[in-house]
Design a protein that fits this description.
Layout (H helix, E strand, L loop, with lengths): L5 H22 L12 H40 L8 H15 L4 H16 L1 H11 L2 H20 L13 H25 L1 H12 L4 H14 L4 H26 L1 H6 L1 H24 L14 H25 L3 H10 L3 H13 L5 H52 L1
Length: about 425
């Protein structure tokens, strides 16, 4: 059986693109004199026009074809009597012409974009409902702040060590701000859809995979802002430690399985303690009445994110100063200093040394446990600073229980 000419296959893709988008527009075309001028056949022909224009004259003729389609759509819009001044159909028709031309060089990409366009067109009612009725002004403003922080500020910040002892990296510190805002937004979405009793514990567990320290800070700030959510916020803070243990297991398994075996009992004990203590508060939160509080407010607190980043920067500066003044003699001291900021990076570094044969796997267990302990100290400080005593008195016993369980498992092993 002879192979089909690639041009024929790409023309078929272009035709399919026009038919797919045109089918969606045909259903919304309406009836009578006020109906939309473009439907199934128009979109199919527009896509083929773009494809044929590219075949015959390349990009210049395709540009002419798009210009003609645009002129026709502008004329149809000007002559229309529809009370709705929307330009959706007209813009979709121009986009379909472009996709028809694109199908001649990158049919897969053109087809994928066409599917996305069709989904966007068909989701009109749901999108309008979401933007007008579900989102609040504060949430829209927070989304813009998050977008600006991620897409405008982050790229321009220098990604290099500056300041005393070279301890501060503006790019890395701003990523912390973004993570805190993202965790706050995740908790906000979870509460909106699941309620505080379910949402905050689940959000805390999920956010722990991003940063347990940041999660504790966000949950503490929420407990200060909304005292009636103290129980669910504490449950989310403690359950974030469960995610820390799970992530530690996964990272050690990927780095050096022998080190994971050496730490299997301590990590199992720590994980069991975290699950037990977190479950107690989660169950209490499920049975408590958290009140009917309007969740259509801010998704996160920019002030909380900035304060948390400043606190963590201070920890980084202090740990770097200790390292410079007293030296980092040996793996244990280095892991202890690194653990104040991030226990996972310290664990990966030590496990990598074990994998290279520079230290034994059993000897790697002690530095990693020390890193977990110093990281717990940071969590204790953050819980007090961010959530106050009412919050920290619920979280700190769980953090201490987890680290004691880890050390008990190490002694027992």
């Amino acid at each position: 059986m002879p192979d089909l000419d690639p041009v024929i296959l790409r023309l078929a893709v272009a035709l399919g693109i026009g038919l797919m988008i045109g089918t969606e527009r045909e259903r919304r075309k309406g009836e009578g004199p006020d109906r939309s001028p473009a439907g199934l056949r128009t979109f199919a022909l527009a896509s083929l026009t773009g494809a044929i224009g590219f075949i015959v004259g390349g990009a210049p003729l395709l540009a002419v074809a798009i210009g003609g389609i645009f002129a026709l759509t502008a004329l149809a819009y000007w002559r229309g009597h529809d009370a709705d001044p929307g330009l959706t159909t007209e813009i979709a028709l121009s986009a379909t012409t472009l996709l028809g031309g694109l199908a001649m060089t990158q049919p897969g990409l053109a087809a994928g974009i066409a599917v996305a366009v069709t989904i966007l067109l068909s989701a009109r009612s749901a999108l309008h409902q979401f933007v007008r009725s579900v989102l609040s002004e504060d949430e829209v403003r927070d989304a813009l702040i998050f977008a600006a922080a991620t897409l405008i500020i982050l790229p321009v910040l220098p990604d290099q060590a500056i300041g005393p002892f070279g301890a501060l990296n503006p790019h890395a510190i701003w990523i912390i701000v973004i993570l805190v805002m993202a965790i706050g937004g995740l908790g906000h979405v979870a509460v909106r859809f699941l309620g505080a009793r379910f949402g905050l514990p689940i959000a805390g567990l999920a956010s722990g995979f991003i940063s347990s320290i940041a999660t504790i800070g966000v949950m503490g700030a929420r407990a200060i802002k909304e005292p009636e959510r103290l129980g669910p916020a504490a449950a989310g803070a403690v359950l974030s430690t469960v995610a820390t243990i799970i992530q530690m297991v996964l990272l050690l398994a990927a780095t050096n399985i022998a080190t994971l075996r050496a730490l299997s009992i301590p990590l199992a004990c720590a994980g069991a303690a975290a699950i037990l203590y977190g479950s107690i508060f989660a169950i209490q939160a499920l049975h408590a009445d958290s009140g009917d509080v309007d969740e259509r407010g801010h998704a996160f607190s920019l002030k909380t994110a900035l304060v948390f980043a400043a606190m963590l920067s201070a920890v980084l500066l202090a740990s770097k100063a200790m390292n410079e003044w007293f030296g980092a003699a040996g793996v244990i001291a280095a892991a202890a200093v690194a653990g104040f900021a991030d226990t996972h990076s310290a664990a990966i570094s030590v496990a990598t040394l074990a994998g290279a044969g520079k230290i034994s796997a059993p000897d790697a267990a002690l530095p990693i446990l020390i890193a977990i302990s110093t990281n717990t100290i940071t969590k204790l400080v953050v819980s007090i600073a961010a959530g106050g005593w009412a919050f920290s008195l619920r979280v700190i016993p769980g953090l201490i229980l987890v680290i004691l369980a880890a050390w008990a498992g190490w002694a027992w092993a």
